[in-house]
């Protein structure tokens, strides 16, 4: 066992290293330590308030476009991810993530393409460096129209 001590700012730090029969090494430190803690609000809630089909030309009919209008509470998001799954929300078909710039109010439009008609579970996640929040919707896409 070895010991080492140092004096700084009128506090004493003692470090002891001890061999462990299990083959590891433990370090014990006694003294005064401080750190800073930042409390952040985070993204508290996400809501899909509107879903609108975008009319496309006949040549694009196989890719139905839907605009999702999304709001949130709390801090402003820096990225948005959309996960499209089967109607039971169990089998993921597609996940798309994009950075977003939201300035004053958390209100944004997310446009996504659906390759074929059908019913889908859509999860939209808004995130920033410290938090994420999720909203889900069940959407039926039928030849360029959605409900």
From TrEMBL:
Cellular-component GO terms for this entry: plasma membrane
Residue segments, region Disordered: 1-22
Domain of life: Eukaryota
GO process terms (BP): cell adhesion
Membrane-spanning segments: none
A GO MF term: integrin binding
Compositional bias ranges of the Low complexity kind: 1-15
Domain PKAT KLD: from-to ranges: 71-121
Protein name: QNR71 protein
Lineage: Eukaryota, Metazoa, Chordata, Craniata, Vertebrata
């Amino acid at each position: 066992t070895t010991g080492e001590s140092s004096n700084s700012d009128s506090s004493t730090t003692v470090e002891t290293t001890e061999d462990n029969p299990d083959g590891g090494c433990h370090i014990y430190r006694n003294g005064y330590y401080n750190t800073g803690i930042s409390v952040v609000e985070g993204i508290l809630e996400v809501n899909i308030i509107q879903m609108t089909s975008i009319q496309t030309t006949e040549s694009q009919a196989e890719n139905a476009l839907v605009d999702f209008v999304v709001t949130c509470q709390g801090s402003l998001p820096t990225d948005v991810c959309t996960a499209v799954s089967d109607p039971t929300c169990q089998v993921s078909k597609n996940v798309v993530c994009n950075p977003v710039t939201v300035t004053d109010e958390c209100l944004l439009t997310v446009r996504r393409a659906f390759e074929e008609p059908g019913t889908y579970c859509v999860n939209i996640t808004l995130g920033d460096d410290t938090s994420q929040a999720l909203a889900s919707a069940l959407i039926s896409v039928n030849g360029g129209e959605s409900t």
